[in-house]
Write a structure and sequence with these properties.
Elements (H helix, E strand, L loop, with lengths): L31 E9 L18 H4 L9 H17 L13 E5 L3 H14 L36 H11 L2 H9 L1 H11 L9 H15 L10 H19 L4 H6 L2 H18 L5 E6 L1 H11 L12 E8 L11 E8 L7 E3 L8 E2 H8 L33 H11 L16
Parallel strand pairs: 1-3, 2-3
Antiparallel strand pairs: 1-4, 4-5, 5-6, 5-7
């Protein structure tokens, strides 16, 4: 699914739940009242190397800003994404940034913080590069320490119940059969890379793929063993691993500990804005492919593909044009997914509810994947669920209207959520 405008990982044929692709929704189909967008950071340097990497000794020259850091191409991708959002919401957002209208949250990583800033430079002209000192206006990006981020950063590392769910998936016959079929391949790869891969977490194989793809994207020659077939097999192995984390069995319960937390926060933010009559129009989340994958899993829309750099999943809430007296509520939710800068974004349909989906129906269908009100059941099957903690505002010191809003923006960010997913944000 990655298009020529974005550089993402190649993907294998594993398909879990396919989104229904529909013609793009026109923004005039019901007045737009609220938007939430979740996007992956832009192009970055590899996260790591491997013992026999031919480029290892010159890594500091190839990646002068360091491993895992945003590249110039990544900045360009985010500028372009911000300009797309400006064109899409030209009539919805004010011409210049208004702190009451837009809130930006990022994970506490250089590449996501810089991606958020570059995106905003494309979205708001006064933050764009090349402005004179007198007219340039920086825009704030909010974050919390990595260890405290329960909203965007997956995984955390202390959730026994998630370990149980993951073990159930990886011990399933289908998973084990696929893994056994790759034993010879991984053995050969050990000889090529100098890494121990057989019997190890599949993330090790993914890291090899990530390094190779990053190097290839920047025009570096790959070792002779890194053929297209090898890259494709590594992508299928990665898809198997991701599927175990966000797909069946017990996909909904996994989602309650991962992407369902963010999904619940998005819905709660919209409800708070509507209930209190707040002027907030857009919440932006700058995060990782693991964040998007977990969110896709919670929505039942993971299709076996890894989100490319600068991929963006959007939630658009509109006033409902139908009968306001029925039990579906007075708003609809539409989803779009932009994974190719050369084409129009895809309009996604939540399984069981063609777009635009009445908000009441959307809440009903996603309820099993969102955390229960009594708390996230993280202590394993033999212990009670952890009670929800008091929500903590993220906008301390803001004006009164934003102070009221801040609890909603931070909702669930401090609920005791812990999980063990596929190794960390990338």
């Amino acid at each position: 699914m990655a298009g020529p405008g974005f550089r993402g990982h190649p993907t294998g044929p594993l398909l879990l739940l396919l989104p229904l692709l529909l013609p793009p929704q026109a923004l005039s189909e019901g007045p737009l009242v609220f938007v939430a967008v979740v996007f992956r950071h832009g192009d970055r340097a590899p996260l790591a190397s491997y013992p026999t990497d031919p480029h290892k000794e010159v890594a500091s020259t190839l990646w002068p800003r360091g491993l895992g850091q945003l590249t110039g191409e990544g900045v360009r991708q985010q500028l372009e994404l911000g300009r797309f959002l400006r064109s899409r919401y030209e009539a919805f957002l004010s011409p210049e940034y208004q702190r009451e209208e837009v809130y930006i949250r990022s994970t506490d990583f250089d590449r996501t913080l810089e991606s958020a800033q570059a995106n905003l430079a494309g979205l708001f002209p006064e933050a764009a590069p090349g402005r004179s000192e007198a007219t340039w206006k920086p825009i704030p990006v909010h974050t919390v320490p990595v260890a405290e981020d329960k909203l965007l950063r997956f995984p955390m590392r202390s959730c026994p119940r998630y370990h149980e769910l993951l073990r159930e998936a990886t011990e399933a016959t289908e998973y084990q059969t696929a893994l056994e079929g790759w034993t010879d391949f991984l053995t050969r790869l050990e000889n090529f890379t100098g890494l121990s891969l057989v019997g190890e977490p599949l993330r090790r194989a993914w890291k090899v793929l990530d390094t190779l793809i990053c190097q290839q994207a920047h025009g570096l020659p790959l070792p002779s063993w890194a053929s297209p077939d090898v890259l494709q097999t590594l992508a299928r192995i990665s898809a198997l691993d991701i599927g175990a984390h966000v797909g069946p069995p017990r996909a909904a319960e996994k989602a309650q500990l991962t992407g369902g937390v963010l999904l619940d926060a998005i819905l709660a933010n919209f409800s708070r804005v509507q209930r209190l009559g707040l002027p907030l129009k857009m919440v932006m989340y700058s995060a990782h492919d693991s964040t998007l994958l977990a969110l896709q899993g919670a929505l039942g829309l993971y299709d076996g593909h890894t989100p490319p750099y600068a991929a963006c999943l959007g939630f658009e809430f509109r006033k409902r044009l139908g009968d306001p007296e029925d039990d579906a509520g007075n708003a609809t939710v539409s989803l779009f997914y932009r994974n190719d800068s050369a084409g129009l974004p895809l309009t996604l349909s939540l399984p069981g509810c063609p777009a635009p989906c009445p908000l009441g129906r959307f809440r009903q269908l996603t309820a099993p994947a969102r955390p229960p009100a009594k708390g996230i059941p993280c202590h394993g099957s033999q212990k009670p669920a952890t009670p929800a903690a008091t929500t903590v505002p993220l906008l301390a010191g803001a004006v009164a209207v934003l102070a009221a809003l801040s609890v909603g923006l931070g909702l669930l960010a401090w609920r005791p959520g812990c999980l063990r997913a596929w190794g960390g944000p990338v």
